[in-house]
Amino acid sequence: MGGICLADDIILETNGLTKEFAGFFAVRDVNLRVRRGHIHALIGPNGAGKTTCFNLLTKFLRPSAGQIMYKGRDITAMAPADVARLGLVRSFQISAVFPHLTALENVRVALQRQHGSSFDFWRSKSVLDKYNQRARELLDDVGLSEFTDTPAGEMAYGRKRALEIATTLALDPEMMLLDEPMAGMGHEDIDKIAALIKRISAKYTILMVEHNLSVVANLSDVITVLTRGQVLAEGNYNDLTQDPRVKEAYLGAGHG
């Protein structure tokens, strides 16, 4: 479309999003535009306000000022569960899988929860079999078909993260928010999860928080750089690596 961004292309939008804690602005006047079907990365050095921004978007924090629009609807005052029901679903940084359940059982629990029957253990076998089929499809989507019967606690770290993404997909999101999906991983796992995110982006819009610019280099359509709670720059990886402000934020900020 020659760079023109139509209004109905925008699935998630913030206007002047701000969060103040007793005089400290963790997020200040952030305007985000996430396009439908894109992988959009929100990156920045530690302490840049990325996680606070995520908590605002998923309604775990209430903004001090500003507006959040999802699919053209104002969700600023909505509760987290209501936002999730609209299809905006977050995958948590700390793995949310049950270690003693198999991969299949973990996804099935998420599917049952999505359909309002998470504790209906007396449901007929045909109902559970329906969940099994969908659970297997989701495990296949994230490359875990051969680990269907493996307890989650016995899986390697990268595979646990893939399973967590499968349980998030079970909630039938239209848009996924991934909170540092590559945290704590070695190169091989980072490559695998990056490929997985790329693959599922064919069906879902993805906004991901990451602190490492190189991790999102070949993955993101758009990268927004935050520093000190404000948007510093936005663009693709090549543009941003040439931007002296971005270099300064990363090199100048160190680990702070």
How is the main sheet built?
A: 6 strands, mixed
Strand order of the largest sheet: 7-8-9-4-10-11
Helix segment tally? 8
Q: Rg, please?
A: 19 Å
Summed up, what is this model?
With 256 residues, this protein is of the alpha/beta class. It folds into two domains: 1-77 and 175-256, P-loop containing nucleotide triphosphate hydrolases (Rossmann fold, 3-Layer(aba) Sandwich); 88-172, 3-Layer(aba) Sandwich (Rossmann fold). It has helices spanning 50-57, 80-85, 103-114, 125-141, 157-169, 187-200, 237-241, 244-253, and strands spanning 10-21, 24-30, 33-35, 39-43, 65-70, 73-74, 88-91, 175-179, 205-210, 222-227, 230-235.
Task: Throw out a few tags for this protein.
single chain, 256 residues, alpha/beta, Rossmann fold, six-stranded mixed beta sheet, five-stranded antiparallel beta sheet, 11 strands, globular
Question: How would you describe what is shown here?
Answer:
The protein has 256 residues and is an alpha/beta fold. The chain folds into 2 domains: 1-77 and 175-256, Rossmann fold (3-Layer(aba) Sandwich), CATH 3.40.50.300; 88-172, P-loop containing nucleotide triphosphate hydrolases (Rossmann fold, 3-Layer(aba) Sandwich). The chain contains 8 helices and 11 strands. The strands form 2 sheets. The chain has a 6-stranded mixed sheet, with helices on both faces. Strand 5 and strand 6 (73-74) form a beta hairpin. The longest helix has 17 residues, at 125-141. The protein is globular. The protein starts with 9 loop residues before the first strand and ends with a helix. The mean pLDDT is 88.
